[in-house]
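User: Here's a structure from my thesis project, written as structure tokens. My advisor, Dr. K., wants to see whether a designed sequence matches the one we expressed. Can you design one independently, without my sequence as a hint?
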């Protein structure tokens, strides 16, 4: 099942196509959560929840396995770093990611318009 059932956003057909679309829109960094905070794979800077804004998020469900769920967070930091963070959705989620996201003050969800 695809969250975007009305196909108003064709890039929503898979997590991979949505990630490619976000990279094309300038969200080029791959974020990860560490004990020191949110960082990119380069680990140059670390960000705390109050320094991060989630500009959108998307949930995906695996077609063949209901346990194959993922969530894609599209994020910007206070210094302008833009990227994405992917986590499992549901029972297989990373508790560190869940805890970090719960502490983020600014979380937006942009709805597709018909």
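Assistant: Designed independently from the structure alone:
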């Amino acid at each position: 099942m695809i969250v975007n059932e009305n196909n108003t956003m064709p890039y929503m057909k898979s997590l991979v196509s949505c990630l490619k679309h976000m990279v094309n829109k300038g969200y080029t960094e791959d974020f990860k959560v560490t004990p020191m905070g949110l960082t990119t794979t380069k680990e140059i800077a670390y960000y705390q929840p109050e320094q991060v804004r989630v500009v959108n998020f998307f949930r995906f469900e695996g077609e063949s396995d209901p346990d194959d769920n993922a969530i894609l967070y599209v994020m910007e930091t206070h210094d302008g770093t833009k990227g994405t963070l992917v986590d499992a959705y549901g029972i297989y989620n990373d508790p560190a990611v869940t805890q970090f996201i719960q502490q983020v003050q600014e979380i937006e969800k942009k709805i597709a318009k018909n």
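When you compare it with your expressed construct, this may help: The mean pLDDT is 85.
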